[in-house]
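The records we work with from here on pair a chain with its fold. Taken together, the tokens spell out the fold as the letters spell out the chain. To see the layout at work, look at the sequence and tokens printed below.
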Amino acid sequence: MGFDRQQFAAALESVRCRRKALERSPNRQSDTQDLDFSVHLFETLPSTNQKLWELLDAGAGPLTVAIAIQQEAGRGQWGRQWHSPPGGLYLSVALAPNLPAQQSGQLTICSAWGIATILREYDLPVLLKWPNDLVLSGLKLGGILSETRVQQGRITKAVIGVGINLANPVPETGINIQSFLTDLTNPVLSLEMLAAITLVGLMSGYHFWQREGIDTLLPAYANLLTSIGRSVLVDGRPGVVVGVALNGDLRVRLLPKGFAPSSEIYLKPGTISLGYE
């Protein structure tokens, strides 16, 4: 499965027009209408995030995008690496958020929410597994990896990497879009269209977060989470997932045990595995 730049440009325009039509106010400028992405296409890369950092070091600016037909050393949560075969979408986009370093988790939240929200508009009932997985039918559809650079306590550069299973082979805990959709005319089955949808969704979530703030975004993000109300064990003590904190940490209410009363704790990404059922 290749990638056609002209088809991508047409798909991007189509997605933007559809998004504009769905907005309540016809006079409001779309969040992504005037964004000018600079797309770099590669046949094979170790990692699109790694390549994009190299491009930024060479002078590239925000909205630079790296897309690979396949990855040989994709990165994700828990420090895992995996081979990403042809047929999936593997891309990274550069941002210049200029926000306090302690708010880095909010980049993942707004990106994941934006992508899930727009995929739902294309007949894909995508949910989210905290903090960064796209879920379809209880299985992993894709993932998001945010990386940042900090100067004087503020994030000056960020790279948001996205991998979504389209027609590539997947493990038992995964699913691809091709196997889910019965309508073979659905435009999402095009790699170019999926790339356009993903970029528009990501940037829509990013701009919504910048405009409305994390207090407004967080409830919408939590509404798509699969883990709310889920029972977990933290250091051998039972608890229940109750939400997500403003910094992106998972909120868990520990249940009473022995003489220990109930209490709420925050867990950092990578400290607990919620798995797939």
